[in-house]
Amino acid sequence: MRIGELADRCGVTTKTIRFYESIDLLSEPNRTASGYRDYDDGAVQRLQFIRDAQSSGLTLAEIASVLELKSAGQRTCSHTAQLVSQHIAAIDQQITQLIAARDELSELAQRAESLDPSSCTDPNRCQVIEAGRSHT
Q: How distant, in Å, are the alpha carbons of 49, 61, 125, 127 from that of 68?
């Protein structure tokens, strides 16, 4: 199949396919006599795997590492599980940071409710922020 058909079947653009070829995620296919790329069903399966892996949160570099192990004939379950665990840990850290940021903003919001807007006269500062800084 030609690149356009492969792109349509996999829900990606032809530019994406060419990019994946340029970074060796997808092997460059054979060419027809007239020079067109000629993809087989293996390219469909590979592209679907790449899309699924990206949907799971893996980066292209991580996907490449899984595919390299597969190409070498190795099993990849433990490697993939480690990558997934790393992403879970990163998300957990982000959640912790977001909760802390939300708590800080909630404190500022509560302080803002108790402040008198008419006493906010400094043209370079906001008393909500300043009140928050003086309590930390």
A: 13, 10, 55, 56
53 domain residue, yes or no: yes
Say if CB 23 and CB 60 are below 8 A apart.
yes
Q: How far apart are CA 23 and CA 61, in angstroms?
A: 9
How many residues are recorded in the chain? 136
- Of 22, 41, 74, which marks where a domain is finished? 74
Average predicted confidence (pLDDT) for the chain? 92
Helix or strand run (H / E) with residue 18: helix 14-22
How is residue 91 written in tokens? 């998300």
Instruction: Summarize pLDDT for 44-55 with one digit per residue, the tens.
Output: 999 999 999 999
Indicate the helix (H) or strand (E) that contains 58.
none
Indicate the pTM of the whole model: 0.75
Domain count along the chain: 2
Residue 29 is given by DSSP the state: P
Tokens matching residue 6: 């492969």
